[in-house]
């Protein structure tokens, strides 16, 4: 689907944007994308009814969401027949999710060929180490999502923000060295005593689970935190230095 095609039908109701509270829609959406571990996935069943499930997600270096599905699952069957889907990201563990921001991504699921899937599998394992139990299944499939429409809801009185897929993208031009060295860089970062915990600035056992030119994602096994860089980086050593700098700032 071309990004110019309309994936989300406008609501048809005029919204008074001045009535809403100040809201950083782009920043909130980007944080939700990188920090949310579990998403609601909706697809179309052959019956014509919508079919929903939940799944883990990761984010590729360019900001593209990706997920695993076993070939035997109903949602894998549905997506292979009709690739349209929606992912909804929110703080599902909160007592009242309607008071918190929610992000809906609409687009198409692209099944990855084995050679394309390998780097996505590595990044998936970095965030979900126990995934090795199911990624080794003979029918394990990896999908990435071509996002065509975005809807961010900030909570009460913050419903009018308009952003698009381009707001979630990360420029990876010239960052080939950083991306190819990600696994080694994660090992180096996680070997640094207390570096991940300082960078996360939260209680728990944290580790670095992903790096891209604009930031790093840390994971505790229960939640994720996004560390945004102060400057764009394209080389492993520069990313390491930026993370060290930010971790000292957080501690201070």
Automatic annotation (TrEMBL):
GO cellular component, one term: cytoplasm
Transmembrane stretches, start-end: none
Location of the Pyridoxamine 5'-phosphate oxidase N-terminal domain: 29-151
Domain of life: Bacteria
Annotated Pfam families: PNPOx_N (PF01243)
InterPro entries xrefs: Haem_oxidase_HugZ-like_sf, Pyridox_Oxase_N, Split_barrel_FMN-bd
PANTHER family tied to this protein: CELLULAR REPRESSOR OF E1A-STIMULATED GENES, ISOFORM A (PTHR13343:SF17), CREG1 PROTEIN (PTHR13343)
Protein name: HugZ family protein
Organism of this sequence: Paenirhodobacter populi
